[in-house]
């Protein structure tokens, strides 16, 4: 297992290089001059050229990319054009906010999604099944920004019980966690339902019933554990996706996290900051996939990762 994890970690190196190259070259073909954006109304051509030379933006593109890779290997992701600070420090400062939001959303999705899927599987085609799956489908299909606006208007404007923006207390965490966790809980509920239904048709479930074990015991002892294997896999992947993909939620609710940094970087053509957030998100997704594989093998002894 150790060699497998090490191999997976080493295989991420070309992925990170490919992502960084894609972001780097795309940002350099998009119309607009980051130096002009930084200087705003100050458009003296000589001054712009001098600043561009000081930032090495007049070097050939391959040279600048090689310099970026060299610095990134040492933990230096560059200097933000807009915020005037090292990108690594900006990401480290913003990550705890994103981590708190993603953790709350993930816990909410698990607490709601797994029981909802289990109830639907135990009572297929019932009123409870249709209601829960309808709620799950709404969460999966509803755009994040629309769900955020509806909840902000309902609980912030009409009822006035929760803040609609900001990030300072546990009350500020409720609405964004619900918005971010609603879609995730819908995916988990639907996957749990289909997985449990599939397991309930297997021979050993019929054998357990034939031995006189009650339906609750059949579901709890035999069906639930085996049916949760694919669910746990998607849960691990969802955590990394929530950490790296909370762009809309953080923007709507004004949360100073990684997603909001990415929006700031895009609006200001802040290439170092955008490259840093993109690489950081890629690393989180890769780690989530590796964690899912390890958990799958730990829960199912039939799975062994061996070197061919």
Outline the structure in words.
There is one protein chain. The chain is mainly alpha-helical and 308 residues long. It has helices at 2-29, 34-39, 45-54, 61-73, 87-122, 127-141, 144-158, 170-200, 203-210, 215-244, 247-253, 258-267, 271-299. The relative contact order is 0.15. The model has no long low-confidence stretch (mean pLDDT 80).
Count helical runs: 13
Helical content class = over 70%
Q: What Rg, in angstroms, do the CA atoms define?
A: 24 Å
Q: Given the helix and strand composition, which structural class is it?
A: mainly alpha
Spans of at least 5 consecutive residues whose pLDDT stays below 50 are none
Strand content: under 5%
Distance between the termini: 13 Å
Listing every helix as H and every strand as E from the N terminus to the C terminus, the arrangement reads HHHHHHHHHHHHH
What gross morphology would you assign? Answer: flat
CATH H level, superfamily name of the largest domain:
MetI-like
Q: Report the top-level CATH class of the largest domain.
A: Mainly Alpha
Largest sheet: none
Strands, count: 0
CATH topology of the largest domain, by name, is MetI-like fold
> How many structurally independent domains?
2
CATH architecture of the largest domain: Orthogonal Bundle
Mean pLDDT: 80
């Amino acid at each position: 297992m150790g060699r497998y994890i090490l191999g997976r970690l080493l295989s991420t190196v070309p992925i990170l290089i490919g992502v960084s190259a894609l972001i780097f070259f795309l940002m350099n073909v998009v119309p607009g001059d980051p130096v002009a954006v930084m200087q705003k109304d100050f458009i003296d051509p000589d001054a712009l050229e001098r600043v561009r030379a000081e930032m090495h933006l007049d070097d050939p593109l391959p040279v600048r990319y090689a310099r970026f890779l060299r610095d990134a290997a040492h933990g230096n992701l560059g200097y933000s054009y807009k915020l005037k600070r090292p990108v690594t420090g900006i990401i480290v400062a913003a990550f705890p906010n994103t981590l708190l939001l993603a953790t709350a959303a993930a816990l909410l999705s698990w607490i709601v999604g797994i029981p909802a899927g289990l109830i639907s599987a135990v009572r297929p085609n019932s009123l409870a099944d249709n209601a829960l799956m309808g709620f799950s489908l709404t969460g999966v299909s509803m755009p994040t920004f629309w769900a955020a606006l509806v909840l902000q208007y309902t609980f912030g404007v009409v009822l006035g019980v929760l803040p609609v923006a900001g990030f300072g207390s546990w009350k500020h965490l409720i609405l964004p966690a619900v918005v971010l966790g609603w879609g995730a809980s819908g995916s988990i509920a639907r996957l749990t339902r289909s997985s449990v239904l599939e397991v309930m048709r297997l021979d050993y479930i019929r054998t357990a019933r034939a031995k006189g074990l009650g339906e609750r015991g059949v579901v709890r002892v035999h069906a639930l554990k085996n049916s949760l294997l694919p669910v746990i896999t998607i849960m691990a992947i969802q955590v990394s996706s929530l950490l790296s993909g909370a762009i809309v939620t953080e923007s709507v609710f004004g949360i100073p996290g990684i997603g909001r940094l990415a929006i700031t970087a895009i609006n200001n053509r802040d290439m170092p900051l955008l490259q840093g957030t993109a690489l950081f998100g890629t690393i989180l997704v890769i780690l989530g996939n590796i964690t899912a594989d390890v958990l799958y093998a730990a829960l199912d002894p039939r799975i062994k990762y061996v070197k061919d």
